[in-house]
Amino acid sequence: MGLLGELLLLPLAPVRGTSWVLRQVVTEAERQYYDPSAIQRELAALERRLEAGEIDEAEFDRREDELLDRLEKRNPTT
Asked: Cβ distance 34 to 73 under 8 Å?
């Protein structure tokens, strides 16, 4: 793209920059959300809460299913 094209697109630079930043934030958030080690830590913490009586069996089962679903979505081949 030549100088004229760059000048014409200059007003859109903040929008393009913001879009790039948002894509990077979403990518990192998804990486952390589906990280197997983070899910395993959450499962361990959930089990400790159940053993401590902080949550009941139904809540444990519901949250465990959610965490296992996240783990499965991250590793669909396993």
From this structure: yes
CA distance to 16, 28, 50, per residue, from 22 (Å): 10, 10, 37
Residues 6+ apart with CB under 8 A from 1: 9
> Binning pLDDT at 50, 70 and 90, where does residue 16 land?
confident
Helix axes 36-51, 57-74, angle to 10 degrees: 170
3-class DSSP state of 42: helix
Residue reference for tokens 């949250």: 63
Sign of CA dihedral 71, 75, 76, 78: negative
